[in-house]
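call fold(seq) -> tokens
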Amino acid sequence: MNGMRKGLLLAAIQIALVLSLGGKLMYDRMTRPRAWVQVEAFDPELPIRGRYFSERLQISTEGFALPEVKQINSRNWWENEQWAYLEVRDGQLIGKAQGSGAGLWIQLRKNEDGTIAGLSEEPVLFFISERAAVPRLEVGEQMWVEVTIPSAGPPRPIRMGIKKGGVLTPLTLR
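ret:
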């Protein structure tokens, strides 16, 4: 086999790998559950370049209790770190203390109403084009991301939206 044929064979193998990964992601997007989740902006320290949002998911929780704080002024995030199994119920992403399937590490915190919520430890990255016009959030607006929940691994972002006055409007970031 000469050099040209080896190069073409390598290129064909690489194209097949990329197409198979793309096919798997599209299949998951069509068949796996998805939900809109409110997010918090997160400033990463990543070496990758380009325009992207790094956001931590705010997840409703079930079956968790906040651990007792050992020190009064302790701010150690790992004291409230728990593994959550993910489930989509009525279009809402829920992190459960017991379960199976996909999951992620969350940081537990108490809401103003006394309920316990989780914030994903690892952010989801949402890449956008260089020419995309990104709107700024105004008072009363919240950033949301639609995610696919795969059978294993972290949620995968699909699209972003802004919620204002109870109305969620998907963004067109082209």
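Residues 3 and 9 are 10 Å apart (CA to CA).
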